[in-house]
Design a protein that fits this description.
There is one protein chain. The protein is of the alpha+beta class. It has 3 domains: 33 residues; 38 residues, no CATH class; 60 residues, no CATH class. Helix content is 22%, strand content 22%. A hairpin with a 7-residue loop joins strand 3 and strand 4. The longest helix is centred in the first third of the chain and has 22 residues.
Length: 183
């Protein structure tokens, strides 16, 4: 292992030491801090204390801030639902009492209506020796039924006429009139 130090390494170490010494002198000399204080308008006495330590409250500055009016959009950021009218506010001042949007009470809804009866009325038959019957379709199934009969243990045929059939849903107890479909 080579423990000799070359002149090139000594020159680099010397340069780094000089840069470090310059940085430390600049940081602790106070020149940069004084420049900042002077730019900010801060005066410091010989003991390092601020000269303008006035504990008095500047009421004139507070009054000036209090008199500032907001002239932005016509919405209230702190009260959702409050809107301000531009026509009622021509000077751009905040009104004493902004208009509030009053929500409507919720609508009380009853239970949903039962689903419509899925039967379709396609025709009827009436003969001398045959009681009046109707032709109904539900999906792919066709039924020929008379008044009083029940389809699939759910739909009861109440009455039959030439243009409509009265059907009762036995589960929901709802009655519906099925019109005769053309074609």
């Amino acid at each position: 292992m080579n423990t000799r130090t070359s002149p090139k390494q000594i020159a680099i170490l010397a340069a780094l030491g000089a840069v470090a010494a310059l940085a430390l002198w600049h940081a602790f000399s106070g020149h940069s801090v004084n420049n900042l204080r002077q730019a900010a308008g801060i005066r410091v006495n010989a003991h390092g204390n601020l000269e303008n330590q006035d504990p008095a409250l500047r009421l004139d500055l507070l009054k000036r801030l209090r008199d500032v009016r907001y002239h932005g959009s016509l919405r209230d950021l702190f009260h959702p639902g409050v809107t301000l009218s531009a026509s009622a506010n021509p000077a751009g001042r905040m009104p004493a009492k902004p208009r509030r949007i009053v929500p409507l009470p919720p609508v009380q809804m009853g239970p949903p209506p039962p689903p419509p009866i899925p039967l379709k009325f396609y025709g009827y038959a009436k003969g001398a020796d045959v009681p009046q019957s109707v032709f109904l379709q539900m999906g792919d199934d066709f039924y020929v039924v008379r008044a009083g009969q029940v389809i699939q243990n759910r739909y009861q045929i109440l009455s039959i006429s030439r243009t409509a059939v009265q059907v009762k849903d036995l589960q929901s107890q709802q009655t519906q009139q099925l019109p005769l479909l053309n074609g």
